[in-house]
């Protein structure tokens, strides 16, 4: 193998490594976006739950009066 062949193999290996790193990074960004969306959904659901609980408490107080 000559110098050119070694350089070509090295360049190809570096290219594959860069491609894998890029794919990993885009996967991490997507995962983080999914996590943020899920957290927002949970907070929204908790707020709705709290609202329903408070409304039910008020209704129950009105029935008792």
UniProtKB/TrEMBL annotation:
Positions of the UniProt region annotated as Disordered: 1-65
Name of the molecule in the record: CsbD family protein
Organism: Microbacterium deminutum
């Amino acid at each position: 193998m000559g110098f050119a062949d070694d350089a070509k193999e090295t360049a190809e290996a570096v290219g594959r490594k860069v491609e894998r790193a890029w794919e990993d990074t885009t996967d991490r960004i997507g995962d983080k976006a999914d996590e943020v969306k899920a957290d927002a959904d949970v907070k929204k659901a908790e707020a709705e739950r709290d609202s329903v609980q408070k409304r039910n408490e008020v209704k129950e107080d009105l029935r008792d009066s």
